Amino acid sequence: MATSEAVYRAVAEHDVVFRADCPSRPILDQIADKWSMMVMAVLVEPRRFNEIKRRLDGVTQRVLTQTLRRLERNGMVERRVLPTSPVGVEYSLTSLGESLREPFAHLYDWTVANAAKIQARQRDYDQRAPR
Hints:
Shape: globular
Helix content: 55-70%
């Protein structure tokens, strides 16, 4: 049995992750949301706020600001004030943030590989679901 399977089985058997007070819940909520994953993917190199925003079609300034602050608070992203006029800020991944690159890549690859199947299932469900 693979290591991740063993972990999942142990967690499920002991209901650890399902408890409301499990410390993993807010962390998973904060790092596994759509915008956090996309920001971390964009930060292959240090980037300024507006460059990040331009690369993430559809993100609002407010949501991007909140996402960057949450990632910084969680130790995934570092914010650096640049000695420019006007003052600039750039963001980069920390070593902790870098450690998520591989798991996120697996999740992204899985998503792309299965997107058509999932969309077909959604269409099937929507056609038979009562309205």
